[in-house]
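Chapter summary example.
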Amino acid sequence: MSAPWDVVATVPDPELPAVTIADLGILRSVSIVDGRVVVTVTPTYSGCPALAEITADVRRALTDAGYADAEVHTVLAPAWTTDWITEAGRRKLAEYGIAPPGAVSPAPSVSLPLSVRCPQCGSPDTRESSRFSGTPCRALWVCRACREPFEHMKAL
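The structure predicted for these 156 residues follows.
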């Protein structure tokens, strides 16, 4: 039987199936308390519509691995930040065609990125087409070099 963390760490994000919940850094902890697996997650934002599906997927993965008794807790503080995305997660996002976010500054500002490297061709000659895309945490950009549109995960 695989360790509970190893099982849960393989659960894909429902909105970005190329990355796992561990890659995104929303998987906070996995422990065994009184014989029961307790998983703690922090969603990317408090109104995340995928949270119910993530919870169900975590429970299903644990049940399939032989852990029938599991709890999934949601914690909102500290708030999730894109700084929690692993290097593997950033690489997978880029391979999936989504430009990964840059680092969040210690003092968040209201400034927007002027350029984002295109995940298709690598060019920094890009422009934001729309501040919003498929989810509130992503924006739509266009590469001027290869002319391909792509999503960029906003730094939060």
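To summarize the output: The helical segments are 4-8, 51-64, 87-96.
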